[in-house]
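Re: beginner question about structure tokens

> Can someone show what the tokenized structure looks like for a real chain? I only ever see the sequence side.

Sure, here's an example I had lying around. Input first:
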Amino acid sequence: MKAAELGAELKSEQREDDAAETLRRLVRSGVMCRRQAIVYELARSLLERLRQSNVDLASAEELSQADWEKIESLSQLRATVGGRFQKIKKRWIKSGFPLREHRGDREGEAEIDEAGWVELALWINKQGYETRLASESEPWLLEVRKVPESGEEN
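And the corresponding structure tokens:
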């Protein structure tokens, strides 16, 4: 009977190993699918913490301020970044940005949806641009700039 107990214990360990390996594969797959969003959130969190720690980021920000293009509308984003209008519009709305009924008019205030914003920011990044939200006091909604080619200086 000792052999039967040993066999059952080995089968139980094998099932646990299989379950652990399956779990590892699922987690790895999930991380790989969301890696851009994870990197974006880590970068945002790091920048927030740096700002809170009173590190002098002003000089670095001043050097790069001229590169940022102010985006006030969906059509301006499309003209700057490119892409298919309907796909950009879908992401724009999902992010919580308002549409304009007429030139100069906004339908309402931006109520940013974090998941939608991350999706839009990642898409803009895939187009070769960095993006950031404008502060609430600014008349524009977001800013974009071309991602520097490797070897280029800011």
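Each token stands for a local structural state, so reading them left to right follows the chain. The chain has a mean pLDDT of 79.
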